[in-house]
C-alpha cells in the first residue's frame, strides 16, 4: 500500500506544499502570478490545492488514497462534500476533475495551523536573490577574521560581493548554479 500526504498552505504571495511519500519528502513553493492574486484565503487555499495536485500528479497517481492536509477548514469541507459556494465552485470542480483524471480517491483533512508550519513557510518564500549580506556587517567580519574571499556562494549579478559567484538560479555570468556545489 502506497501512502501519500500532501500538506498545503497558501498566502497572499504564493503557495507551498510538502509531499511525503515512500519515506521521501518533496517540496514545492510557487509565487502567485499577478493576475492570480486571489482575494480571500479560501480562494487562495483552494487554488493551492489544485496547483499542488497538478505539480505532484505523477506521484499521486501511484498512491492508493492520497491525503491532503490544510489548515483551511472551508477547503476541506468543500472537497469532502464535493460542492462549494459560487466563488469557490469553479476551483473545487477543477480539483475533483483532476482527481477523476488521476483515478484516485482523495482524502482531505484539517490540520491546525501550528502543525502546518512547513507548508506555511514554503508559501511565503521570496524570490531567489531578494536577500543579501549587508556590506556593513560583511566588512566587520572581514576585518576581524582576515579571510581570503574567492567566491560568493549565494549571489546574483546584482548583489554579488566577489568577482566569482554562484547563483541560486540560471545566470550566464555566474560560475555555476547552486549553493555549495563549487569545486
TrEMBL record:
GO terms, molecular function: nucleic acid binding; RNA-directed DNA polymerase activity; RNA-DNA hybrid ribonuclease activity
SUPFAM superfamilies given in the database record: Ribonuclease H-like
PROSITE patterns: RNASE_H_1
Species for this entry: Streblomastix strix
Pfam families in the cross-refs: RT_RNaseH
Protein origin, superkingdom: Eukaryota
Keyword Nuclease: yes
Name of the molecule in the record: RNase H type-1 domain-containing protein
Organism ancestry: Eukaryota, Metamonada, Preaxostyla, Oxymonadida, Streblomastigidae
